[in-house]
Design brief:
Layout (H helix, E strand, L loop, with lengths): L2 H7 L28 H8 L14 H14 L3 E5 L2 H13 L5 E5 L4 H11 L5 E5 L4 H11 L3 E5 L11 H10 L3 E5 L4 H4 L9 E5 L13 E5 L4 H11 L5 H11 L2 H20 L4 E6 L8 H7 L8 E6 L4 H10 L4 E2 L9 E3 L11 H7 L5 E5 L5 H14 L1
Parallel strand pairs: 2-3, 2-4, 4-5, 5-6, 10-11
Antiparallel strand pairs: 1-7, 6-7, 8-9, 9-12, 11-12
The structure holds pyridoxal-5'-phosphate.
Length: about 400
């Protein structure tokens, strides 16, 4: 080969696997995969034999995360996606393809999910009805009335951290031949596994707890066997795939998910109880609180002492200006809009997740201007409460 050709071919390892075994999954950046004969390539492309051919259809690094997610969620199919929204889009399209185009959606749902339903799926013929997902009889009545093809809810709502009776809703969905999609971003497969409770499709924003370090945008869809063919075919055609680099970071993050969750949940318990006794705090929202309005459901569905690591609270008599002063005074706690990372992060729902709603609509949902949401990290809990203390004093 001439030098110009060597620059293209020489370093590439287009040969059979060597005798050694890497201890972690390598990042396969190749977009296409070659085989020793056209006959084999033909059989791979025809999905007669397993193997990667083109990264939108499958990639060895991404396959590894999908296998891990199937296992963690007790699912039959998984697709790693480029964001939580890409995952939600895939799940909704997949479920709606051969079902009535009417979605029954929890009224406390992530803003962009509601937005997708109303402004993207709405104009192309998908109707959406909202319901209080924590009221099982309201869900049953709505299902009987509108006969939805899909029900969508979150395991834990944002930012007031309400928890619906997932198993009972799954039963209602099954009885009505509706597919139940559950966004389990806030709880992770370590706290609750929607497929084991009867859901059809579970969705994650892997950007949050799964990757966990604030440096990945990703998502995942995991489903039962019934939805595998449709979701797989949609994923191959639409191309919501996660990149191999993000996949590597997500898998690296998941290796410490159990220890992070344990620590973050324990820290959240301490911070919530500290906030509850602070004279400047009006009200605390925390899934581990025995006085939580959904405490019996949480006790039934979540492991003891691990109910989540999100804590929201209202600052007494505070308006937006005072909350801004409080947030600006934070020194260690990060001001931002995400959650689930190793660092504690404070967000202000009125200008982030619920920005698009009118003040009246926010008020109706119970999201007041005095409400702050904390995603508790793995720091020493004393440092978290000390930062909150000094910021409350300074605001
Ligand atoms: C519950 C929930 N679902 C989905 C998403 C969307 O995830 P992503 O930003 O990874 O697209 C978010 C983002 O905050 C979320 O909080």
């Amino acid at each position: 080969m001439k030098r110009e050709s060597k620059t293209v071919h020489w370093g590439d390892r287009r040969r059979k696997a060597p005798g050694f075994v890497p201890v972690t999954t390598p990042i396969y950046t190749a977009t296409s995969y070659s085989y020793d004969s056209m006959e084999t390539l033909d059989r791979v492309l025809g999905r007669e034999i397993e193997g990667p051919s083109y990264t939108r259809f499958g990639n060895p690094t991404v396959d590894a995360l999908e296998e891990l997610m199937r296992e963690l969620e007790s699912g039959a199919f998984a697709a790693a996606c480029s964001s939580g929204m890409a995952a939600l889009h895939l799940a909704l399209l997949g479920a709606l393809l051969d079902r009535p185009r009417h979605v029954l959606c929890a009224d406390a749902i992530y803003g962009s999910t509601a937005n997708m339903l109303m402004t993207i799926l709405g104009p192309i013929g998908v109707e959406t009805t909202f319901v209080n997902i924590c009221d099982v009889s309201a869900v049953r009545a709505a299902v009987e009335e509108i006969k939805p093809g899909v029900i969508i809810m979150e395991t834990v709502s944002n930012p007031l951290l309400r928890v619906g009776e997932l198993d009972k809703i799954a039963e209602i969905a099954r009885g009505a031949h509706a597919a139940l999609i559950v966004d389990a971003t806030f709880s992770t497969p370590l706290l609750i596994r929607p497929l084991e409770l009867g859901a059809d499709i579970v969705v994650h924003s892997a950007t949050k707890y799964l990757a966990g370090h604030g440096d990945v945008l990703g998502g995942a869809v995991v489903s039962t066997q019934e939805h595998a063919e449709t979701l797989g075919s949609l994923a191959r055609t639409l191309g919501p795939a996660m990149s191999p680099f993000e996949t590597f970071l997500t898998m690296r993050g998941i290796k410490t998910l159990a220890v992070r969750m344990e620590r973050q949940c324990a820290n959240a318990c301490k911070v919530a109880s500290w906030l509850s006794s602070h004279p400047r705090v009006q009200r605390v929202y925390f899934s581990g609180d025995p006085a939580h309005p959904d405490a019996p459901t949480i006790a039934r569905l979540f492991p003891k002492n691990q109910t989540g690591a999100m804590v929201s609270f209202e600052i007494k008599d505070a308006g937006r200006e005072q909350v801004f002063r409080f947030m600006d005074s934070l020194q260690m706690i990060v001001r931002g809009t995400s959650l689930g990372d190793v660092h504690t992060l404070a967000s202000y729902p009125a200008i982030s997740s619920h920005r698009e709603l009118t003040p009246k609509h926010r008020e109706r949902l119970g999201i007041r201007d005095s409400l702050v949401r904390l995603s508790i990290g793995i720091e020493a809990h004393e440092d978290i409460t000390a930062d909150l203390e000094q910021a409350l004093a300074a605001s």
